[in-house]
């Protein structure tokens, strides 16, 4: 079925006998916020079946009801309600920590785990046996992307070229043992995120759909820039967990979008929404971790090139 919304579900309600709803503890129409969340959770389980193509974003109030959230949304995809939370933000930060614990970075891509001998560990574990294969994969994907751009005569901006160089430099430092990453608990997530974004960029380049001014391509590079800036962050565990969760969430959606380009199908609108939310989380965590000087040069370069002064949270 098509995605449904919580405020447009009367037709769905009439599919179910009152006895069925009563057996599931459902009152209709819902008498309060919790009952409305419960109704949404019931619909997601029965109608949506938790498939990526059928999921719908709930009210931000879902963060108050973890039992219903887990039943109806699960833990595979990042819940994209970050910008509408207000006073419930502490609950969402707790959710991000739990999401990161339940989604170790290497679990994003099972085939990569086999090919590169990755072992899925706790999100909080950093050893060279874990990071070096990820760093080598980063080097491989950056070389592939730059090569595709050269062959297809895709002109990159100076900022994009500098970002790719920075990624390769950081990855090579990890391979060479030239950087200290003990305590950098988002390092593995950053490397996986950068790789998945690069894979999506490569796919778009091969399809003739990579353009520096394209919104999807700009978002890829903004996420990559945030990830590389936070990769070796060793401060607050709360910031590291939130950043790691956002990186893993973005990486999963980048994988889905890449598969969609290969005609395997996904809900592109939902993936874009989740990636924008993840980028917003990363931008805020970067500001918390590095201060106001931790600016987004990709967004700044895009704004300068367009002669625009847009004030959206993503700088687009």
Record the SSE blueprint:
Elements (H helix, E strand, L loop, with lengths): L9 H4 L4 H6 L9 H16 L17 H7 L16 H14 L7 H6 L12 H24 L6 H19 L10 H20 L8 H16 L6 H25 L6 H23 L6 H10 L10
Helix pairs in contact: 3-4, 5-11, 7-8, 7-9, 8-10, 9-10, 9-11, 10-11, 10-12, 10-13, 11-12
Explain what you see.
It comes from Triticum aestivum (Wheat). This is Aminotransferase-like plant mobile domain-containing protein. The chain is mainly alpha-helical and 316 residues long. Helix content is 60%, strand content 0%. It has helices at 10-13, 18-23, 33-48, 66-72, 89-102, 110-115, 128-151, 158-176, 187-206, 215-230, 237-261, 268-290, 297-306. The longest helix has 25 residues, at 237-261. The chain is globular and about 60 Å long. It starts with 9 loop residues before the first helix and ends in a 10-residue tail after the last helix.
């Amino acid at each position: 079925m098509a995605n449904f919304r919580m405020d447009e579900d009367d037709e769905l309600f009439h599919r179910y006998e009152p006895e069925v709803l009563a057996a599931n503890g459902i009152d209709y129409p819902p008498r309060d916020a919790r009952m409305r969340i419960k109704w949404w959770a019931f619909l997601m389980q029965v109608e949506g079946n938790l498939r990526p193509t059928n999921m719908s974003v709930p009210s931000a109030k879902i963060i108050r009801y973890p039992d219903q959230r887990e039943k109806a949304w699960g833990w595979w995809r990042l819940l994209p309600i970050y910008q509408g939370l207000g006073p419930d933000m502490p609950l969402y930060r707790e959710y991000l920590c739990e999401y990161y614990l339940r989604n170790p970075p290497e679990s994003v891509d099972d085939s990569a785990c086999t090919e590169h001998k990755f072992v899925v560990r706790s999100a909080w574990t950093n050893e060279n046996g874990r990071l070096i294969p990820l760093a080598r994969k980063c080097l491989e994907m950056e070389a592939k992307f730059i090569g595709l751009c050269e062959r297809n005569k895709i002109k990159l901006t100076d900022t994009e070229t500098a970002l790719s160089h920075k990624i390769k430099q950081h990855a090579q430092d990890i391979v060479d043992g030239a950087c200290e990453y003990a305590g950098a608990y988002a390092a593995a997530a950053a490397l996986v995120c950068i790789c998945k974004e690069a894979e999506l960029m490569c796919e778009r380049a091969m399809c003739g759909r990579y353009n520096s001014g394209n919104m999807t391509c700009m978002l890829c590079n903004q996420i990559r820039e945030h990830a590389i800036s936070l990769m070796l962050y060793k401060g607050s565990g709360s910031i590291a967990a939130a950043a790691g969760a956002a990186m893993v969430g973005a990486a999963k959606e980048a994988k889905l979008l890449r598969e969609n380009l290969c005609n395997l199908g996904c809900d592109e609108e939902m993936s874009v929404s989740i990636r924008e939310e993840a980028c917003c989380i990363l931008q805020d965590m970067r500001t918390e971790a590095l201060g106001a000087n931790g600016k987004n040069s990709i967004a700044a370069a895009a704004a300068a090139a367009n002669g625009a002064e847009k004030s959206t949270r993503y700088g687009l």
